[in-house]
Amino acid sequence: MTQPLALVAYENLMPGSQLVNRLQDLGYRVSQVADVTELVELAEREKPMLVVIDLAFTKADICELITRLRKNAATAHIPVLAFTAAANEKLQESARLAGAKIVATEDAMQHHLPQLLDQVLAVE
Q1: Highest CATH level, class, for 5-121
Q2: Does the reported pTM lie above 0.90?
């Protein structure tokens, strides 16, 4: 059976690398996004099961990228699981408005990743 693909984009090494390891432990193939500005094109080409993205990028507007994913007919169906520090409520709300299906804190990602994946992948 083929493992589902998760595209993962992060800037901070510690939570990002831990997340990659957890996803692999849960049976996902993980492709790390080297250049986050190419996220939409990569998602269109690779056809992932989901996109997991850290909102705390300093070199890109992640909410704009989420909006572009939602507006692209080839990627609009791909669920986005976004995460950031708990204190950044404004950024969390912006990500929701941009189209992230779930926005979680870094702590929630570490402690509840299987449940968050179930929620983000649930068909509505």
Answers
A1: alpha beta
A2: yes
Q: In this structure, which amino acid lies at residue 87?
A: A
| Domain ranges across the chain | 5-121
Q: Tokens 């007919």 correspond to what residue?
A: 73
> For residues 113 and 72, what is the distance between their CA atoms, to the nearest angstrom?
27
Report the relative pairing of strands 102-105 and 5-9 from DSSP bridges: unpaired
Strand partners, 104: 83
On whether the CB atoms of residues 53 and 61 are closer than 8 A, the answer is no
* Residues 6+ positions from 4 with CB-CB distance below 8 Å: 27, 28, 29, 48, 49, 50
Whether the pLDDT of residue 12 is over 90: the answer is no
